[in-house]
Amino acid sequence: MPGGRRGPSRQQLSRSSLPSLQTLVGGNVSNGMGLRNRSCNSVGLSAPPISTLITPEPVRHSRIPELPLDGSFLFEFLLFLYLLVALFVQYINIYRTVWWYPYSHPAASTSLNFHLMDYHLAIFITVMLARRLVWTIVSEVSQSSGGSLLRYIVLIAARLSLLTMCGWVLCWTLVNLCRNHSVLNLLFLGYPFGVYVPLCCFHQEGGKSQASGSDCEYPADHQQADLAESPLFRPRDFFFLLRENIREQFSSPPHMPTHTCPQHIHSDTPELIRAEVEELKSDFNRRIKEVLFNSLFSAYYVAFLPLCFVKSTQYYDMRWSCEHLIMVWINAFVMLMSQLLPPSYCDLLHRSAAHLGRWQKLEHGSYSNTPQHVWSESTVWPQGVLVRHSRCLYKAVGSYNVALPSDVSHARFYFLFHKPLRILNLLIGIESSVVLYQLYSLLRSERWNHTLSLGLILLCNYYVLFKLLRDRIVLGKAYAYPLSSNSSGLKSQ
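-> structure tokens emitted (493 positions)
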């Protein structure tokens, strides 16, 4: 109105209503790199770093109980038994007969066409499926120490006898298969090894040989420099890798890595946390690679290879055989994942991800009136802070944030493991879907071979699903237990 008091403009209101970082922490704040205002000009302030003024909230970890885990020998024996059952089921689907016909019109005198089976192929597949069990027995025998000289000689002789017998059986079956089949069929026998060699042997992760002790603690300064200079994938000689892998198999098995929570924040803490994450990423990738290869290897030799040696004049249900192939691969994948990624290992990854944190990338122009900082690699950033890195704006998501904002692998690591039950829930969902589908197929099955096949496979799947649900119930209660201030979980387990 004319003559009235003119109020503040909209621009002045927007600027004055926003609290600055000085108001939040009670003083002038700078991270050593300068504070950015709206015009993106750096205002040099002689103030301590932001990590000295804003203390991030301490990360509290839940303590989980030690759940029973199958030993190496027991797990390999159960896996081998499951694969034998799956192989038997596949042979039933291929060589079944109508054995219930009356003798006046005999279609077959037995339930299976045994005269059409290639016994050399069945023995070859059995030996290939037993390779992990045999290697586990040999490794445990080699690692056993103590006792008299006579006991040591007997163990060495038993180990050599077992390996010699397996090698002789493989050579005998290969010779007979070469006599009776074409070269194209013989190429299917070694196809998985032809894929494994270029993928896993000629390239090796540089961080794999870094862990030499039982604890995967923070490396020293000189070890961090070696990790930074070494490439992630390094071409190696095939015979050197083969000799190195054999030596590792006969040496002591690697222990479960442990996580050490930083009790006091100092300038080296972010770098130590990132080095630990890199070590855990290499170990996790190695385990996933082992799971994928062994599950595909098992499904290939159990369900696919018998189909390659079927005569062209023989009829079998292609849809059911392909469905069995998929089911075997999924079940082997879940079994290996539950064994190689136990709850204690997933909790270790969760602890490391909680200290790593994550950055959320924001759009240009957003939060223009909020104080923004230049990201520093030696700073532990609290939740909600805005930083600029590589001409992009990021917002801190976790309680601790030491991850590199532009590193996609850090964001992926946090996404996978910041919730400790994510992998377990995924495995339960996969296995439950398989069991429900097989139950549905069992109710609708009209052929005797389908009923027998589903019944045998379901018995194995029930055991796997029971172990997963048991772990989920126990861990769900452990992680849902409220954390008190005196049990912050900073003590490593």
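Residues 8-49, 202-236, 249-253, 485-493 have pLDDT under 50 and may be disordered.
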